[in-house]
Design brief:
Elements: E1 2-7, E2 23-27, E3 32-35, H1 42-50, E4 59-61, H2 67-70, H3 73-79, E5 84-88, E6 95-99, E7 102-105, E8 118-121, E9 125-126, E10 131-134, E11 150-153, E12 168-170, E13 178-182, E14 190-193, H4 201-212, E15 218-220, H5 233-246, E16 252-255, H6 261-271, E17 275-277, E18 283-285
Helix pairs in contact: 5-6
């Protein structure tokens, strides 16, 4: 299995662009697919630099309904109108970053919902023998505190009144889904793509074990631990406890984007060579 980081927050190989976004190219025995598509069309330019032929992609999986994972999708669809796009139906909601009196739309381009090859997903789905999707992670242990500023605008829901604050409710990330890629044949590796892991990587792994009965061989994605305005003692303790739990598995973790450099260093103290930070342009063979 070949995995290429097409875009991530930090620059890496061969003069690739970096942005606040995430996209992985995954090449298996039967598929050439994208797990998320970054915030802009920059991932397409990086793909050309890295020798990835976007025209050959057959499947796109969108992890959740935020712009930094979907912003390049309309540009991709113009270049490749044949690939099937799998996204939770609820990812078309109106998502905002809401901090005090300030609010900023962070949802998808509404045109995405009109794409001809969009395949809305409502629950767990087995696409084929290599690819499957799951969601509905309801656990809340060590839930990332940064989630508290991420909201959904209500659409005719109970609770709306003249107070604009009541136009929003806490995002529960029911629009988040996770891609599992299963290599064919005896001993084939099973790899989990977790997007931003808003629901908490430990809770996601709990759900994975419920479904598959074992830990994944590898995980790719951010852990949503990054903070712009500093870390509280509680934030750092959450990272430390997460690292301790992850170290008890045999899974290899490839992370970046919303994990943050300070949390990554704490996780590294516990996980050592079991965790790696990926950058734009990095390529990994599983």
């Amino acid at each position: 299995m070949r995995i290429v980081t097409l875009i991530e927050n930090t620059p890496g190989a061969r003069a690739c662009a970096a942005e606040h976004g995430l996209s992985f190219y995954v090449e298996t025995a039967s598929h050439k697919l994208l797990a998320d598509v970054g915030a802009t069309d920059a991932f397409l330019k990086n793909a050309a630099l890295l020798g990835v032929d976007i025209a050959q992609v057959d499947t796109v999986v969108i992890s959740h309904g935020h712009y930094d994972h979907t912003g390049g999708l309309m540009s991709f669809a113009q270049r490749n109108p044949r690939a099937e796009i799998f996204m939770r139906r609820s990812a078309g909601g109106e998502f905002y970053h809401h901090s005090g009196e300030r609010e900023r739309y962070i949802g998808i381009d509404p045109g995405i919902m009109e794409l001809a090859r969009l395949r809305p997903v409502d629950g767990d789905m087995r696409i084929d023998e290599e690819l499957s999707l799951f969601g509905d992670v309801t656990g809340r242990r060590l839930w990332p505190s940064g989630n508290m500023e991420l909201k959904v605008r209500r659409k005719g829901e109970p609770g709306q009144d003249d107070n604009r604050q009541n136009d929003f409710r806490q995002d529960d990330f029911g629009h988040e889904q996770y891609l599992v890629v299963q290599e064919k044949g005896p001993g084939g590796k099973r790899v989990l793509f977790s997007g931003c892991a808003h629901n908490g990587i430990l809770n996601i792994l709990d759900r994975f074990r419920e479904i598959y009965g074992a830990d994944p061989d590898a995980v790719f994605g951010g852990f949503h631990m990054r903070k712009k305005q500093g870390y509280t003692t509680e934030d750092l303790e959450t990272v430390r406890q997460t690292g301790e739990e992850l170290a008890g598995s045999k899974t290899m973790f490839y992370t970046g984007h919303c994990t943050g450099e300070i949390p990554f260093q704490i996780l590294k103290e516990h996980l050592g060579e079991q965790i790696m930070y990926v950058h734009s342009g990095d390529e990994i063979e599983i």
